[in-house]
Design brief:
alpha/beta, Rossmann fold, ten-stranded mixed beta sheet, two-stranded parallel ribbon, 30% helix, globular
Amino acid sequence: MPVKIPNTLPAAATLTSENIFVMTEERATSQDIRPLRIAIVNLMPTKEATETQLLRVLGNTPLQVEPVFLRTASYTSTHTSEEYLQEFYKTFDQVKGEKFDGCIITGAPVEQMAFEEVAYWKELEEVMDWANEHVFSTLYICWAAQAALYHNYGIPKHPLPEKKFGVYRHRVLVKNCKLMRGFDDVFNAPHSRHTEVRREDIEKIPTLQILAESEEAGVFLIQSADGRQVFVTGHGEYDADTLEKEFLRDKNAGKPIAPPVNYYPGGDISQPPMVTWRSHANLLYGNWLNYYVYQETPYDLAMIRRRG
């Protein structure tokens, strides 16, 4: 899916070098089609890396996608310059009167805090309520998945005895689901988190369905019955070296951290990591865009109604 982004966004050069179809704004306006408008609420401190990761998995089908990057107004990132944010990001207040085909809300390194203690929690609650009314389908990643399950359904997160860190094997539970079309019976996906949501809590909510899980990493993929909420507890969008960078960062800081499991060939950290999750990550995001957004959202975005 060609992504329509400003020429000056740093991700544009990276994606072009990887042979990902990036469409300039000038070319996009010459095509007589309506692009899918996808709001991306980027809560990660490494905003440029996350932008590239998400645009990479969104750029793999023949439709046109127009991402709109959003940031919090109640918390200012210390890792990204204000000039960069002003140029490429909007605040929620600037778009809350608009409607979008889809929305992605990323994780954030705040999972060991109570939700209510997060500086931008009230703003994020407002964003999640807005998404239920102004967005046709929303995909929540990692901590955002936990946050949305808590906010919308009262499902708690639970601390883990040690960080769930590495690449884990998952199995598909619902093979006839549109989101799982084309998936192998088993697939790999990265995780990097200190907390989890549990199957027994999710199963108490009849409108939620668990689609995939791992014996080691637990529940991976959940959807609401109407497909307008999708929750991913891991990080299929991660680059080949993302886990390695996290490992080396914590190791060099003197934090207790084991190497990511199932990541280095033979467990040898001197070897370059082996990517075993990319194809299924592309399939997951492509299925979500196609079956839950493009095939379902009304052509006139004004027709989107509150879910439920």
